[in-house]
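== Polypeptide entry ==
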Amino acid sequence: MELYYKDLISEEASLEKLVDDLMRVVQGVEELAQAAGANPAEFRAEELTGRLARLKENCSRLKDRTVAAAQSADKMVRDHPYAALGWSFAFGLLAGAVLSRRRD
């Protein structure tokens, strides 16, 4: 029996929404700086826009790598389900032992 979770991540939590929110934050900071009497020439909009573009590109790259890793792990678990179950059980025992020793 296979389960597929199509809507695991909501559509509202998209990369574009994050970038839009960050742009709003930048605009708010500029308005705050102007209201406080700071020199707005020190805040370069082009620099911030460039940084946001690089952030968007890095997030997109990270998303692609994460999807590829998840697909690889899914294929491995589907090909070798009992071995994956054994490894996860052994990892759980090891993690429990380490955490119980730290607690004492």
Q: What stands out?
A: The chain has a mean pLDDT of 79. The helical segments are 15-36, 45-79, 81-103. The chain has one domain: 15-103. Residues 59 and 65 are 10 Å apart (CA to CA).
